[in-house]
Write a structure and sequence with these properties.
By secondary structure, this protein is mainly alpha-helical. It contains two helices and two strands.
């Protein structure tokens, strides 16, 4: 039950952050590609790349401490 509440809170909070991110990048002109080991992405705004990294870190930050406390 606690994990479900924690996951729901993370989902709502990060959805709100993603919505604000999409609104905020409307006037972004600087774009870069992200290089992975195998391929590259299309050109994305810098603010989108940084924002998605923040949201991903926030999701892991919500869920990882719960798993560490179980042991």
């Amino acid at each position: 039950m606690f994990l479900l509440k924690r996951f729901l809170h993370a989902l709502i909070f990060n959805s709100f952050l993603f919505f604000i991110l999409i609104i905020g990048i409307q006037n972004s002109n600087t774009k870069n590609k992200v290089n992975f080991l195998i391929a590259e992405t299309i050109e994305l705004p810098n603010s989108f790349i940084i924002g998605i990294s923040l949201i991903t870190g926030s999701i892991f930050g919500y869920l990882i401490p719960y798993k560490l406390n179980e042991k």
